[in-house]
Amino acid sequence: MKLLVVGATGGIGREVVAQAVERGHAVTAFVRTPDALAALRDRITLVQGDLLDASALARVAEGHDAVLSSFGPRDPRAGGSLLQSFARALTDGLKRAEVRRLVIVSVAFLFKDSVIPPAYLAGRLLFGHHVSDAAAMETIVRESGLDWTIARPPALTNRPDHGAYRVREGHLPLFGFVISRAQVADFMLGAAENHSSVGKIVGISR
């Protein structure tokens, strides 16, 4: 598959790129700072640009089979509407490029029915602005008409863990406190490859 990865220089994004290459996919990384992926320069296509520019996203997305996004703010405690601005640009760009498949990372804090862990309560208390922005992003994606999958992971770790993890449609798995970035990347790639989760919000955790 030809895959476009946005948010490719973050922790999940780097894992998506590396694992996609290992699986034999042709990867384009659309980034603001190409040097962050210099080690993979010979194995992927690097395109520098603004992730909030719908026209630039349309140009780079053209001809790809799917787009995988782990884009997000570096500090989730900051305010603003970065995620919703990104979602508008991304969905507009993909529609212009006639690319339908989108797998995007959101936050487990949006699971209002999660009791153990109390995801929504904790998110509202600790990261209220980020949760509101992520909710707005999801609304834009869900209403886009694209073939989307939204992944909502809980706390992320950097463990080089490619082992088993749990997946639950519409809910966070019980006692789903953590998951590794490598495992999130594995789920995203699987979702792009098999299309079984189109139109679904999915909770993933160890």
The parts where pLDDT drops under 50 for at least 5 residues are none
Give the beta-strand count.
Answer: 10
Gap from first CA to last CA: 27 Å
Structural class: alpha/beta
Biggest sheet details: 8 strands, mixed
How is the largest sheet built, in terms of strand order? 3-2-1-4-5-6-10-8
Succession of helices and strands: EHEEHEHEHHEEEEHE
Q: What is the overall silhouette?
A: globular
Helix content: 25-40%
Strand fraction equals: 15-25%
- Please compute the radius of gyration using only Cα atoms: 16 Å
Query: Helical segment tally?
Result: 6
How would you explain this protein's 3D organization?
The chain has helices spanning 11-22, 54-61, 82-97, 119-126, 128-142, 181-194, and strands spanning 2-6, 26-31, 45-48, 66-69, 101-105, 147-152, 155-157, 166-169, 178-180, 200-205. It contains 6 helices and 10 strands, in the order βαββαβαβααββββαβ. It is 35% helix and 22% strand. The mean pLDDT is 93. It is of the alpha/beta class and 206 residues long. The longest helix is centred in the middle third of the chain and has 16 residues, at 82-97.
What's the helix and strand layout?
Layout: E1 2-6, H1 11-22, E2 26-31, E3 45-48, H2 54-61, E4 66-69, H3 82-97, E5 101-105, H4 119-126, H5 128-142, E6 147-152, E7 155-157, E8 166-169, E9 178-180, H6 181-194, E10 200-205
Parallel strand pairs: 1-2, 1-4, 2-3, 4-5, 5-6, 6-10, 7-9
Antiparallel strand pairs: 8-10
Helix pairs in contact: 1-6, 2-3, 3-5, 4-5
